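README, section 4: Worked example with a bound small molecule

Sections 1 through 3 covered apo chains. Here we extend the same pipeline to holo records, where the ligand is supplied as SMILES alongside the sequence. The molecule in this example is zinc ion. Nothing else about the input changes; the structure line simply encodes the ligand pose together with the chain.
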Amino acid sequence: MARDVMHVVASKSWWSGTITTACGLKVDSSETNSVWFPSLSGNIKCPACMAAHKAR
Ligand SMILES: [Zn+2]
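The generated complex, written as structure tokens:
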């Protein structure tokens, strides 16, 4: 793991396995074992994701 930045998952395509984060990042879920939840403390949170999450 190079980074432990936590992104907020906006949506996940179960058929393709692609995760879209609140900051617009698209990640293949097969490439990461990270559990991306904003409620987990102790991790660096992506500021763009947190801003987008609060703006909802
Ligand atoms: Zn993010």
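What to look for in the output: The mean pLDDT is 76. Residues 9-55 form one domain.

Section 5 describes how to batch many such records.
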